[in-house]
Amino acid sequence: MTADAIHPAPGGSVAAAYVAFSGKADLWWLRLLRPGFRHCFLMVSDGRHWITLDPLSTILEVAVQPVPGEFDLPGWYRARGLVVVPARLGPPPARPLLIAPLTCVEVVKRALGLHVRWLLTPYQLYRRLARDAAAPAAGQS
After folding, report:
1. Sheet holding 60-64, edge to edge
2. Which helix (H) or strand (E) covers residue 73, if one does?
3. What Cα–Cα distance (Å) separates residue 125 from each residue in 11, 20, 38, 52, 58?
């Protein structure tokens, strides 16, 4: 998958992006994080397919989900108790990013084009995305 697949040119085909947050913690030290916000992953739709990017502890799982493009995948995850927020896809960085630990938050931030160095935990990412979703989009009033 190229950067253009997630970050298309203006007028490109990405219809929607969402980040899901889970309270499940398979690793003991994740239980130190805020309940309900111990893991996150990205869902992107191009209108025909849903693609998930799920940075797990042992593998980076990228999958085209076996559902039609019009399926409400974010709603499906919400119905299963996950917190799901819309996300905006930003442009790829103009220069290399700083080295950072490979966490679920860092992977999602980089996929979204979100360049905030001190955004480290799933809850901090949730607060940032919820704030961005509440703000009007650029060019709208």
Report:
1. 60-64, 50-55, 39-45, 16-22, 83-86
2. helix 73-79
3. 27, 11, 11, 17, 21
Q: Are 84 and 21 in contact (CB under 8 A)?
A: yes
Write the single-letter amino acid at 2.
T
Helix or strand or coil: residue 122? helix
Give phi and psi for 28, each to the nearest 5: -60, -40
Domain extents for the chain?
Answer: 3-133
Element (H, E) at 79: helix 73-79
Q: Which residues of the chain have pLDDT under 70?
A: 1-14, 27-30, 33, 136-141
Q: What is the pTM of this model?
A: 0.81
Q: What pLDDT does 138 receive?
A: 54
Could you give the angle at which helices 122-134 and 104-112 cross, rounded to 10 degrees? 30
